[in-house]
Amino acid sequence: MCVLSQGVPWIYSRYSLVSWWQMEQFSAALFMYVSRHLADLRLKLGKIRPECHLTGQDQGPYILVKGVTEHCQKLGLHISVRCAEDIARDMERGTTVGEIIAALIELDNTIRREMSTHWFFHLEHHYAAFYKQTELFGVEVNNKFQQIAFDMVEAGNCCAMGRGTACVFHLMRIMEVGVQAFGTKLGVSLAHEKNWQNILDETNKAIRALPPKDSMTVQLSQISSNLYAVKLAWRNEVMHPNDTYTLEESENLITQVKLFMGQLAQVV
């Protein structure tokens, strides 16, 4: 199926990823349809004296102009559509070949200018996997912590778009939910606690009071260890980091937070 028959990829599937192949197909279709129509029309008109009049009754040129209008509409080139519609309207009323050729040159320039206003962002294959990922931490975490859905997707989006610090910000909000749930499970109140070491001290104190060989105690100890790993990854004593983070650091933190939240989901 021709790409143009579906519409513009970045319009009919807004904010979704468009592959390089789709872009190439779309670009090829664009030049094949629009450029060919304009070239054919100018070639036909070039064989007629400039002072000759044309009307809508001259079906060949008129149909080609309407074809350009249709394809510009599919492309979302609204200014170009209006320009092409003006040419078709002039032909319906009657105008000279020379005036139509001049208008077609302006239409061609308008299409090029309008296309130059559309910009595209390239994602490497590895990071594209993070984009709009609704199960970044797995189904079980989704089911147990539905309130983190927004921040989880945004953390992945920010990582995909190369925004390391923004990614960490959303992971921080997820960890606040996780730490509160962890504290509740252990009977420890962490509602206003922001210092990582204090959090670890309180949770470890509660774990040490539990039967050491109990399977639940072992699981909670593992969760605490992963909480410590997140602390190291953050390289910060407080839960609200003020530093900036690289893309590699944010990706590492996604892994650590995923592990922490995944194990936590099994016990809460």
What this model shows, in words?
The protein is mainly alpha-helical. The chain has two domains: 3-115, no CATH class; 125-265, Up-down Bundle (Four Helix Bundle (Hemerythrin (Met), subunit A)). It is 68% helix and 1% strand. It is built from 13 helices and two strands; from the N terminus they run H-H-H-E-H-H-E-H-H-H-H-H-H-H-H. The chain has a two-stranded antiparallel sheet with strand order 1-2. The longest helix has 26 residues, at 20-45. It starts with a helix and ends with a helix.
Question: Which features characterize this protein?
Answer:
268 residues; mainly alpha; Four Helix Bundle (Hemerythrin (Met), subunit A); two-stranded antiparallel sheet; 2 strands; rod-shaped; disordered N terminus
CATH architectural grouping of the largest domain: Up-down Bundle
CATH class bucket of the largest domain? Mainly Alpha
Q: Please tell me what the overall shape is.
A: rod-shaped
CATH topology of the largest domain, anyone?
Four Helix Bundle (Hemerythrin (Met), subunit A)
Largest sheet: number of strands, sense, barrel closure: 2 strands, antiparallel
DSSP summary: helix tally: 13
Main-sheet strand order equals 1-2
Mean pLDDT: 83
Total count of domains: 2
Q: Gap between N and C termini, in Å?
A: 50 Å
How much is the radius of gyration in Å?
A: 30 Å
Oligomer: single chain
Number of strands: 2
The SSE string, one letter per element, is HHHEHHEHHHHHHHH
Roughly how much helix do the residues carry, as a percent range? 55-70%
